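Notebook p. 47: complex prediction with PTJ.
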Amino acid sequence: MRDLMGKVSPLHPRAESLRIRGRLVKGFRSGLVVAEGLAAHGRGEAFDYIIGEKTTEHAKKAAEAAVAMLLLAKRPVISVNGNVAALVPKEVVRLADLVGAKLEVNLFHGSVEREVKIEKHLRKHGAKEVLGVDRKFFTRIDEIHSDRRKVDKRGIAAADVVLVPLEDGDRTEALKKLCKKVVTIDLNPMSRTARAANVTIVDNVVRALPLMVGIAKKLSRWDPAKLHKTTCGFDNTKNLKAMTELISKGLAKTR
Ligand code: PTJ
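Predicted complex, structure tokens below:
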């Protein structure tokens, strides 16, 4: 499976999946990712396996609506957790740049040490500014019942659109109560976050982020009317239903 240098053989049938795991384990060992992040990835992997580890047409449609929403926003923010920092640091920085969004470290398993590590990691990958690490700007969103309630006044607290990839629990519902629009990337179309978000991209973050970067390059040349048409024409409930059906059909085929 691995050669003497510890590299995954390209001939292994699950080579790509093993490489992604490797990135996450490296992130865990360097302190970016929590142990729970490895378990969360496993849950995602199970859904990815069923959808065939490929970006579906439904995900592409959602990604286009998501990028349009970010481009139309006045104060877009991309929230970064440990898994996202370990898996797609370069792409998340590039996307923020293309859509004019701020990057904010926001953790479910809060830790100042990890916040700083993630900030440094994002800077190493080209980020000029990373919010969520300077105590001076901390504030609380009381509606959130986890460590994620600690946010940056210049970032999530003031945002009108927030991208929350690989999300847990109650935050999406709380952000929506505060009249913010929420975009998420989640391989589980049945999760609370997937259902509560305005736009849910049901895809692996390792494919969704590069896809969004490509879309952002194209859509940043569009006028606002065309971007509005894209967001208005997107129905998240319908898209999620289509993804759930695709998963059911995938499972039925294996019987
Ligand atoms: O770094 P922290 O402290 O902020 O913690 C991050 C994790 C991911 C541990 C935390 O947010 C968490 O516990 O998340 P959950 O509740 O396990 O939810 C994560 C969701 O992301 C699940 O619905 C998974 O199916 C999904 N998921 C996991 N890996 C991927 C994924 N979706 C897309 N791409 C993935 N690679």
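Notes: The CA atoms of residues 216 and 244 lie 27 Å apart. The chain is about 50% helix and 10% strand.
Next step: compare against the earlier run before touching the bench.
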